[in-house]
Amino acid sequence: MSRGEDRISNLPNEILESIVCLMPLKDAIRTSTLSKRWIHLWQFNLVSSTSLQFGEDFSCNQSPKQFVATLDRYLQLHGNRNLDKFGILFPPFENFFPNGGVSICPRERARINRGVKWMENWVSTVLAKGVKELDIDLSQRVLNSYREIYMDDRIPFVITNSVFNCNSLTHLSLSRCNFSEPLELTNLAGLDSLSLDHVNLTDEMLTNILEKCVSLESISLKRCEFLEEVKFVGDKLKLQKLLMVDCRGVYDMEISAPKLESFLYHGSISFSHAFGNVSKVTDAYFCSVGLEDNDEELFGVLSEFSHVKVLTICSFSFIHVILDEEYNEDDFPMELRNLLELQLVMDSISEVHLHCMFTFFHLCPSPFLEKLFIQFLDQQYDISDLVTVEKNTPDIVFQKLKWIKITNFDGSPLELKLVKFLLEKATVLESIFLVMNQCDISNNSLSLRIVQGQLSILPKASKNAQIVICGPLDRDCTINPTHKTFYHQEKYRNGTTVHLDYATIGGENIPLDQEFLYSVLL
Question: Domain for residue 57, yes or no?
Answer without folding.
Answer: yes
